[in-house]
Design goal:
With about 110 residues, the chain is an alpha+beta fold. It has a single domain, classed as HIT family, subunit A. A 5-stranded antiparallel sheet has the order 1-2-3-5-4, covered by helices on one side. β2 and β3 form a beta hairpin. The longest helix has 17 residues. The radius of gyration is 14 Å and the shape is globular. Bound molecules: adenosine monophosphate (AMP). The site of adenosine monophosphate has 11 residues, from loops.
Length: about 110
């Protein structure tokens, strides 16, 4: 598996603005925010893309989503709403090959995305 910049954040080799941590998931602010709130939730285990998930990773994916929704609720973002996105490979716009869920909030989102 590739060693990405997110692995280095997990190992605390480079700084990040960490807003959530549990046994399986780390959440930190995106360095190039696309909304007033833009947080990335990643599994601590390296999984490059959605295509690499195995059936027994279903719980882990659920934990990513639950970490994001709990954060959104705690930050008072739930009522207005938010967007959760996981990009996959080139056409999906993925640039870091360690699965991450984007939580975007604080402005009106548009559909379809660019
Ligand atoms: P994606 O295009 O879905 O792979 O998203 C990768 C995201 O990682 C982008 O939104 C980047 O701004 C973000 N990113 C890259 N390097 C860092 C970093 N060191 N700390 C926080 N976010 C980062």
């Amino acid at each position: 598996m590739g060693d990405t910049i997110f692995s280095r954040i997990i190992r605390r080799e480079i700084p990040a603005d960490i807003v959530h941590e549990d046994d399986d998931v780390l959440g930190f602010r995106d360095v190039s925010p696309q909304a007033p709130t833009h947080v990335l939730f990643i599994p601590k285990r390296e999984i490059p893309t959605l295509n690499d998930l195995r059936p027994d990773d279903a719980t882990l994916v659920g934990k990513l989503v639950m970490a994001a929704t709990a954060y959104a609720k705690a930050q008072g973002l739930a009522e207005n709403g938010y967007r959760c996105v996981i990009n996959c490979n080139k056409d999906g716009g993925q640039t870091v090959y360690h699965i991450h869920l984007h939580l975007l909030a604080g402005r009106q989102m548009h559909w379809p995305p660019g």
